[in-house]
Records
---
Amino acid sequence: MPQKAAALRFVILLGFVSLCADATYEGARSITGAYLEVLGASGTVVGLVAGFGELIGYGLRLVIGYLSDQTGKYWGITTLGYFVNTAVVPLLALAGRWEVAAGLMMAERTGKAIRTPPRDALLSHGVSQIGRGFGFGLHEAMDQTGAVMGPLAVAAMVYFQGEYRNGFTVLVVPAVLGLIVLGILQFIYPNPSDFEEETEETSQEEKLPQIFWIYLGAVAIIAAGYADFPLIAFHFQKQGIATGQTIPLFYAFAMGIDAVAALIFGYLFDRIGIFVLMIAAVLSSLFAPLVFLGNTQLALLGIAFWGIGMGAQESVLKAAIASMVPKHKRATAYGIFSTGYGLAWFLGSTLMGVLYDHTITTLIIFASTTQLLAIVFFAWVKLQADGSNIVLSK
């Protein structure tokens, strides 16, 4: 089979694994908060469990990325991560106490942290044959498809069966299916790095290049000013823009936009390079005023811009890293990227929550300004790339 066709099949199959994983854990996350309340947890406990889980999820990636590159066990670490990430989810149906459920929830976040850096490194090899932007965009589109399917399946089970436990039980199906395909995938493609050729100069580099750190600064700025959906949902509920029944539909709409945008921006990245991230930053700067000042119709438009920004971030940001970092350091780079992105998102979301309670206008200014400020850093990255003869695209 020609290399390009084989690489495309590899990317699609790995995307299917991610689709199944997202259907599993996003399906669970759609009801875990309510489930903890049923089991007797307090609001403080729910907040701590969610926050600590995300802290583990992003912080551990720094170590896992480095470990993956040092050992070269990309498939083994990826498999372990996917197993923990998905296998613990159906066990939530058996949790009789909130303490047990909380432990399983944090185990799920730990699994995601373990599998993400080596998975992205493996994916970066396959997309080198079909266009990095398109490849990562395709993976993100499949990923988000699962993120929509899982919660819908859980909602249907809870609606017809009446218990949260049944919602977790149905997630056995995507969990098992994803793990089976993952096992087959690494049997067919034991060495995905063979898809990608590397020059002798880049293969000898021992440190991450300066351009990566400048790029990470741009990414951190974007993440810090990107409002998390729970704050948006809180605003919708408080202002009567949407109800408890329609807010999930807003989120599903955003995820659909995310999937489409990932494909479009990934395709454009392969043709015009990092300039596409500047376009995405301009568009995402519009979400805050529309979401936090508009009526229902304008808020829906704002959610569309929010989804566009998310799609560009989840696809192009990772594709650009594959262009600037040698493949033997890539899992380390993705681990640092994920940790920096998650920390900036956490700090920015906390600040925006405080700003919301005091003045929404300041929140909007902060969110929009950070998106536009990132353009300066992306321009700096482009200058660095041009000076170093680095091609930040296909």
Note: The domain at 201-388 is CATH 1.20.1250.20 (Growth Hormone; Chain: A;).
---
Amino acid sequence: MSEQTIDAQNSLNILDDLIAIALRKGAEAADAVRIQGTSINVSVRQGETEEIERSEAHDLGLRVLIGKQQAFVSSNDAKPEVLEELVDRALAMAQNMPEEKFCGLADPSELATEFADLDLYDKTTLSPEDLIQNAKTAEQAALEVNGVTNSEGGGASSGRASIALVTSDGFKGAYSSSSFSISASVIAGEGQRMERDYDYDSHHHFSDLRLPEEIGRKAGERAVKLLNPRKMSSGQVPVVFSNRVSASILGHFSGAISGAAIARGTSFLKNRMGEQVFPNNIRIIDDPHRPRGAASKPFDGEGVVNNRLDLVEDGKLQSWVLNTSSAKQLGLRTNGRATRGTASPPGSGTTNLYMEAGNLPLEELISDIKSGLYVTSLIGFGVNAITGDYSRGASGFWIENGEIAFPVSELTIAGNLNDMFLKLTPANDLEFRQGTNAPSLRIDGMMVAGT
């Protein structure tokens, strides 16, 4: 396997041994996962190094099943004698657990047998001194922006991670990834008229990062633009979510189509499969095999094949986000969206989730707005997953006569996600920055509460 680095093969051998011990001692089925990682994080402020932190993780998790009883145990020690104790503890726990009707391993026919090379691992090695220099450069560039008066600091990091999974039904797989990041956060203005903002970049490959000078300059410019915000009166107006914050709208959607939420009946979309939930020009995709994608992985947390999934086509809801357990509860088949830690049952979640870009530049998207809000920051979390009611604090800029006019703050925006989804219009400025991404989104008729 081309991505087996950071001792991934050794992890597979350890997990093989652990599964064999579990079956020998009485487990009817078992799976085991090992997650390893190392990282270095540095922070600087006013040109001085404030923190250098190095961390390592070596976590091992075992699930054993006896009939419909299951138990989970974890350890950070992989010595042979510890593996024996781990199995004994897991089996003793399983025998005293209540039966879970829908627990179990994935069907062998669903397991991945080929693994795509997703180009997630970069061999570039950065010393603490390299990271410190990147952080200082970003901070200095921000401080040089006219109007910036103070710094909350610059940061940089690099890391390596490896995930290995083995099941008693025959799955064996591992993959590794690297990560690099640079950030800066600064303050503009003085006294009671200070505003802060930030910028950052994070990628699997160091060469994909924007230059620290660019990151710092953008952080400084953003902070300065927020100076002297106005308070606005309440009203119902179009709201445009910048592509810095629009992913949060998509995040509410992904939570609402989680298989577990649908099975529990705790989602405002629980009865909407196949229905129009977005305008007919909207497509939402989850693609775990996106090369160098922030959340890419060659198989899911149960070893299942995880192909691209079109969750919304022509505005219509096409699929839930399913692992084996939630699929069984709904009488369906898993679609390879299991997530996995070392001490709990598999969950379900999206990978590289994104809404396809629209056709209009941001300038055209707002050109006919006589009065409205352009959101660059969201505060708090006021979303009811059962009803779809939405209310969050917001700040950004007021739109007047089709142009971004002046900064505003201390506002609350409210609506219902069912209505918000149907009134949504995307811009053409989609950027892939993280696991969930969306272009700028215009939603008409939202309530904005101010003074």
Note: The two ends are 59 Å apart (CA to CA).
---
Amino acid sequence: MTALAVALTACSSSASPAGGGKNGPADPKAVTGTVTVWLMDDAQKNWPDLVQRVNDEFVAKYPNVTLKLAYQGWADKVGRLDKAIADGTAPDVVELGNTETMKYVLSGALAPVDRTTFDNADTWIKALANTCTYQDKLWCVPYYAGARVAVYNSSTFQQATGSAEFPKTESELLTALDRIADRNKADRTFSPLYLPGPYWYAAMSYVAAAGGSIAKFDSAGNWHGTLHDARSQEGIGHFTDLVRKYNKGDLAVNEQNQFESMARGHAASFYGNGYEAASVTAPVTGDPSLKDAVKVATMPGPDGKPLPTFIGGSDLAVTAKSASVAAATDWVRMFTGSKSEQALADKDILPNNLTQLNPLKSKPSTAAAANAVPDAWFTPLAPGWGAVEKQKVIPDMLTAILKGKSVDQATKEADAAIDQLINKPS
């Protein structure tokens, strides 16, 4: 956690009761108390201006409410949140990765929200809204979407292949990567395609391309792992073959900071979120001299079609035991309103709704990601999926394969682990 907790205005620490209308309490100026917000540090690094504007708007509307903001890191947020819920110190508003939501919905940790009171709710990206929906109730609000694309150094491709364009098919891509590898063979740390070994989002995209899946819901009402199925094994084998051939870095390192490999001149391409291209060329995290060379494109899959992307992104939820539900919900309403979502879109972040997403489909910097959203895949909406992720079942399976375990044996063991976890609320 980045322990940045900022009280934006001072007041009583106990919330006063207030009726909640469609846009928050009936008399916001009469509301007292505290609203604590946990946002992920992506917001701090990439759109602090949006956070400041919304906080200023909230404070102006609720002059007698203390607004506290704390930024979290992805690596330890879930553990901190679980402890805070158990201790009775949970934030009023919390950002959840969209694979985390079901765990907290099923445990009763979130307060229901009224979809009709939020901007663009009728055109929310369906796959995102689904991560907030259970038993026909909405338990969180879509914040932004993420879709993975190919990020590449067009100059490197131009020098090796004669074209600065990213290949349209995988066979063309592999030919280009082989040429890039040959041109840079003197540098044993150079990756034509930097594809991290434990990168399960990428691996499962290849599983989806092969017609496989992580798990399925059977007629008896239970989820069971399906990574050992033939099509899933085919996709996993294809992914690990690519990793072995083209990633010259440490195969055990995950994708969290993969942009650094390109920024430091050690990679020609990688598969990541569109916004990671900006990290490659940012003044602090990357190399600004690469600004004109770094581009994004659709990642081709092995079946002649674009590689299916995981529909990533975040949701915002109000916790069930919040003493300031109405005001907290209003902060979420402000932060996901049309003005806020447009601020994200202007930074090439995919907004939560199709209305504001559509213009990004023709913008060069966002077209690949924006057009990938309709056909994206998502993790099983199962009670124990959070535990499957927490136990790192799929990353550990991939690491085992790259260390020499057969795909057949590793996927069989992964399915057994999934079956132990996926049907139990985590």
Note: The chain has two domains: 2-145+313-370, 148-310+377-421.
---
Amino acid sequence: MIDRIPSIDIVRFSTSGTEAIQTALRGARVFTGRNLIMKMDGSYHGSGDIAEYDSFVSPVRKGLSPHIDKEVVIGYFNDERTFQIIDQYKDQLAAVIVEGVMGAAGIIPPENGFLNQLQEKCRQYGIVFILDEVISFRLANAGAQEIYGLEPDITTLGKVVGGGMAVGAFGGRADIMSVFNPSKPNAVHHSGTFAGTPIAAAAGIAMLKKYQGETIIHLNEKGNQFAEDLKDLIYEYNLPLTVTHIGSLLNLHAIDTPIKTVDDVRRGNQTVLQAIQLAMLNEGVFFPKRGMMSLSTAITTDEFEFVLAMFDRVFKKYSMFIE
């Protein structure tokens, strides 16, 4: 992992992406001596309190700490307002955490150099820039940071780096990661009985050796082609649907306007999207009701054609309902 990701000097392991992110945020607080964390509205960073909090979440209703709104400030992906908010809280922010590509929110790639500007703003104020690559790492040898020319202070990882086993990881600059060094006084505590288990490590090594270079390029090409074929079907049936995608990640949205932000996603017709999801399930194809699809190297050409044929059948059968 250190060889593949130039921004990582030291890496530590956990049992999940959630745990990796929680620990990375704790380390950023100790390193900076500040307390406030910024996350993007609608981003998913696991199930910790900080990660779960956004503009649509009630701490009481969701069981989060009633004081969580004093620990988190909300930014907005692909939105200039974010930089103004950072200027406002610059002396309080320990870290800004952001996804390389917004995943669960609807596969929204960064636009107009948003992540690069965000990184520079963090550098300006000594804020730890944390890039969550749990989902986006699959897109290149070094993930989204390779695609967009980023050098985050800390990178958080999971899923792909474990080859299907339970694993999480975070790593970054040596000076920041040194706060976890147990040989130092007042080190940040980080341990876990199953963190970096031999089975997960062996699976992860095998995965990283196989999933690189031409394999990633080929899967991304298949993903882009699949997304374009799906768009062609939407156009053929004149449906109010949109596909967002990058490489092997794509998302179907029940809205016919461009998707740039999570607010665009929220304007979609979730009833229609869930109806399509159920109809596809009845045809033998599963994807989550939010419309997200992550393609695998194991999917064959025949299987791609089958899925597209089922979309064709569903779009044709339900076109009157969808309109």
Note: Residues 49 and 241 are 33 Å apart (CA to CA).
